[in-house]
Amino acid sequence: MLGIDFGTTNSSVARADEQGEVQLVQFPAADALVAAYRSLLYLEHTKTKTRSQLHSWSGPEGIERYLAAEPKGRLIQSLKSYLSSRTLTGTEVFGRRQLLEDLIARILGDLRKHAESYFGCPVHAATVGRPVHFVGAESGVDDVFALDRLRDAFSRAGFKHVEFEFEPVAAAYHYASTLTREELVLIGDFGGGTSDFSLLKLRPHALHYEERTELLATSGVGLAGDAFDARLVRHLVSPHLGAGTLEQSGDKTLVAVPSWVYVRLEHWHHLSFLRTRAVSEMLRAARIRAFEPEKIAALSDLIEADLGYQLHQAVQRTKISLSQQDQAEFVFQDHGFNLRASVTRSEFESWIQPDLAAIEQVIAEVMTNSGVNDFAVDRVFLTGGSSLVPAVRRIFERRFGQDRITAGNEFTSVASGLALRARSSHHALIA
Ligand SMILES: Nc1ncnc2c1ncn2[C@@H]1O[C@H](COP(=O)(O)OP(=O)(O)OP(=O)(O)O)[C@@H](O)[C@H]1O
Ligand SMILES: [Mg+2]
Fold first, then answer.
1. In the chain, what are the domains?
2. pLDDT tens for residues 277-306?
């Protein structure tokens, strides 16, 4: 009766007992125990005369190991966002091809071991969350493809039995555990990769388990916290790293570095693709011709030193500050970098406006597909880290009014709900 939320940014694991009490696995981190385990992977390799071996660490351990290492190995973030991509079967790590499924399995295997030691029993089965639509999926076929790969990754990590549930439905199981009466609830789960919605009728006291949750509609979009980060990189960071910098070419002025380089820089899961000889030679040549060569030199340094994690942290700090105050500083000081910029919340909100509009449209779709009138919704429950962005919350305030909105357990509601879901399907089975 284990629930596993393998998130784009954070993962968590929970177990529910017979009484419905949920226990979240607490993972050891630098100076505390945490329930949210960073879904990142850090790789190093050792080579002797006879064999070369790949070592990996994930979560807080991966971060510590990466920060302490010199020279540094390879750190990969937001792996879940690759799942729908047919062109990305894997990536080259220290000259060896690694399948995406194997890389994800390394994180899942670590989660399994932590769960085993925390609960003191072997773990081979779990109810696992899935987004309604995976990042980058353009059709139902893409979603099936992504889900099959995720299933395969679980099996490579030693899981023998895995059942999937939509992440926003899992969050509803968590929310339902706080209810004393029947409610019609709209759930919004805003993560790192995806924003997912479900509209459900929750009947906490129904005699039969199957009647306690009735799913009326669900939908989602592959846009969330990482997309907001991308906007911050585009507007705040890239201009310092040569985006738009010109060069003289004959009698024409052209941009020195093509824009696709900055598109990669904006996506945490694509950043490591810039560490190739071709890109490094292209930047070296651009530096010679550009009017502001120091900016392009800074971009080369960032890529060479593989500072994607540090940049991500700096962008996240700015974004989180903007959830709390009207204005924030972006500060990136690392490996000789000293980038600073100010940003107001209203600037940030104007940058993420297209993402907010896309999210709003999906919410409208869920309501239309369900055939339920907005007035009939008793409560809106918002969860996931990106639900803390005030502009995200405002979408719901405008549509449903402040009084009907509730929020909470941003980083653990999905795992808790998955554990409760696992328990209820077990009960339904034996009833
Ligand atoms: N206070 C905050 N303000 C704005 N964004 C935040 C805040 N705290 C966390 N985030 C963002 O929330 C996201 C992570 O949320 P969460 O852990 O719910 O995602 P996830 O479950 O890993 O992703 P997904 O569900 O899409 O697979 C990150 O993009 C992070 O930057
Ligand atoms: Mg999530």
1. 2-180+409-430 (3.30.420.40)
2. 899 999 999 999 899 999 999 999 999 888
